[in-house]
Amino acid sequence: MTPADCTNAGGVPQGPGTDCLTASCPQPTEACCFPDGTCADLDPSDCLNQGGSPQGVNTDCLTVFCPQPPEACCFPDGSCAQLDPLDCANQGGTPQGPGSDCLTVFCPPPPTEACCLPDGSCTDDDPNMCLAAGGVPQGPGTDCTGVFCPSIEACCFPDGSCVELDPNDCLNQGGFPQGIGTDCGTIFCLPPEACCLPDGGCIETSPD
Predict the structure, then answer these.
(1) Cβ burial, residue 62 (10 Å; 0-12/13-18/19+)
(2) How much of the chain, in percent, has pLDDT values that exceed 70?
(3) Model's pTM, two decimal places?
(4) Phi/psi class of residue 153: alpha, beta or left (left: φ > 0; alpha: ψ in -120 to 50)?
């Protein structure tokens, strides 16, 4: 190949006396991803020398997505994890920005609401924590200063069955409240029994 042929082929003649064993021909650039998530179109050797990762022949930064470094990700329950921003968003979290980490970022806890517990007491708690404690969340914006929590206790019915109810609901349904702190796992509700009368008649008695 003559120097003219080289030029016509889009090449650059390297001068008289040069050969391909000693000539340093620049390599085509390709996308180079850096640890901080940035991208540059570089010769693969330059990419490696600068701490990057070459993305392959014929790649460029217009078409290559470079993985972003993990950053603090706050979740609705107040927890935090180091995640790629996209993974964070896909998991329902909120990325806290480049360079952030869970050691320095404060993720706000979820808003509390009134939680009625089985014994009638009330706590202002995260709804999930409320449910885990056997309580009933009273809804966003509520607190224990404005909520009445009825106690739930064992309620015995005349047929011997037992249901855990608010005492007023128990009475309204014809049952007999068994007291604060009781439940159907520990209370035995007596079933009705026959009562033979002196005249030979029979009636069914109620346990209460």
Answers:
(1) exposed
(2) 99
(3) 0.47
(4) beta
